[in-house]
Each structure stands twice: as C-alpha cells, then as structure tokens.
Amino acid sequence: MRRDYDPRPTEPERLDISRGSRGVSEPFSRRATDPHEVFSRDLDLPRGSSRRPVRDRDQTYELRGSEVRMLATVGAFRVVPSGDLRQELGRPIDPWSGDLRRLREAGLVRTIPHLIGRERHTLVTLTDRGRQLLESHRSRGREDVRQAFYSGLVKPRELAHDTQLYRAYLRTADRLRENGGQVRRVVLDYELKREYQRFLQDVNRQRRSRRDGGSFEHDVAEWARAHDLPMLDGHVHFPDVRIEYEHPDSRRAVEDVEVVTPHYRGAYAAAKAQTGFTRYRAATGVGGRGGRSGRGLDPRLAEEFL
Known about the structure:
- The protein is α+β, with helices and mostly antiparallel strands.
- The chain has one domain.
- The chain is built from ten helices and twelve strands.
- The chain has helices at residues 28-33, 65-77, 98-105, 128-135, 159-162, 165-178, 189-210, 216-226, 266-273, 302-305; strands at residues 2-4, 52-56, 59-63, 80-81, 109-116, 119-126, 182-188, 231-232, 235-236, 241-246, 252-260, 278-281.
- The strands form four sheets. Strands 1, 7, 10, 11 and 12 form a five-stranded mixed β-sheet that branches.
- Helix 7 packs antiparallel against helix 8 (216-226).
- The longest helix is centred in the middle third of the chain and has 22 residues, at 189-210.
- The radius of gyration is 20 Å and the shape is globular.
C-alpha cells in the first residue's frame, strides 16, 4: 500500500557522484534508480568491475562492485536465497564459484543449505565481519535514514517466509520504478517493532512519573498514526518490509509489503486483509529467477489467496 509519508526533511537528499566511485563503469543515474543498486548506494566501497583493495581493521579485501552490491543486499534483508542474487552484468549466481565463493572464503558471508518444503536451497547471510565492513564504510549522512544491515539468522522457524522478502521487494520496487519512483531504503519489521518497543518503554516511564492516568491506548494510537501504521482491535500491525521511496517530484512516500503464506488463516488472515498492505502470496519454493529449482513468487494479491 502506497502512502505519502515523510519522517525526514522535505528537501531531497543530493547524491554525490564522487562518493565511492572507484572503478565506476556505468552512469550514476542508473545506479541511483536501479532497485538492485539501492543498498550499496551510500557506501564508500568499489562500484565498478575492477577489484580494489578495501581496508577494514586488520584485514584487506579485494572487492568489486558486484560483490559490494551482494553484501549490501544480503545485509539489508538478513537472509537471501542465492538464486535471487546476481553477479556482474546480471548473471545468475553459482553458490560454489564466482562472487559468492570469494565472499564466503573471505569470511564476509555464510552460506547455509536449507530444505524448504521438498526443495533444497542455499541461503546467504552476512557474517559479523561482513556487517562490520559495510558499517565502517558508510558515507556521511543522517543516521535515522540509513539503510540498516544485519548479520546471522534470528528466527530459523521463519526462514521459509523470510527468504521471500527480497523477491517481494523486487516486484514492488520494479513497479514503483516504472511509475517514476526511486527507492531510498527498506525497513524490516524488526526495525519498526524495535522502535515500537522503545516507545512503549518511554510511555510507561512517563506515565509512572506523571501519574496522570492518561489513556495508554490513546498514546499507542498516536504513535501508530505518526508512523503510518494501521491499528486494528487495539493492536498495531507491522508489514514485513516497508519501502521508502520518492516520487518524481521528490515527494516522499512508503509502500508496505506483506508476504502471505498458507499459514495465514482465520482471524489472523482477516486482520491482515484489513491493513491495506501490498500483499504477495508466498510460493512453495524459493528458487530464484534463473535458478535451478523452485517456483517464483506469485505476485497476485492476497484477495485471490483468501
């Protein structure tokens, strides 16, 4: 669901062509709008096809643009199937060679064999070292609008769901781009829920100090409204992925995306249907475009599923 929403300054952020431009081999305008390029855009790391030395703490890595983009993409979504990633010039990833093999041998990513349904997949996640590399090479900017990066797995039981978030993002981002939109960053539900928990802690402290008997439900509703999140039956609902983007006229907006699985049933499914999120049905397999196995994500809305 697209919403006009701007938690940041109204003046559009100016892009600095010189930042991290070592080895540039394509126009910056393309990198600035390509959904695959978003997550590495504000990193002071190589962007071209030639390998460049990158120093981080006591290590030096030889990296090129496609490897940096892979690191940033995996970090932004925490876990991505190798079949959904691309090498230089858009070639499909081979988990055992090329960029992914080099990053794994450098200790920057970890690959995990995983069975989803009856299909075997190779999942990719950052190591702590890989996340540190990205964090230490950020360009200067406001911390509250930075793309967050993650390492490791948190909820193994939800892998079948989480591995489809990147593909849902690509479908949505491609549509936004066709309409002139430019993606700025993605925000996972983890970030939104973490901010919500901090808010609840602050509210509880304030209520104890004031002892004014104010309405807790009112405070929560105001927080949800300020963050453009739906509140149904007294509960705030969070999308799987929030895509922050700009319209051609520089207006900021968000589109909230939910991946619908067969486990969405009954009252839970009905509640999700009322949120207004853009919803995609999760396929039984997560093999990527051009992958060896698995069906792609069904882009039909959940109304068809329900």
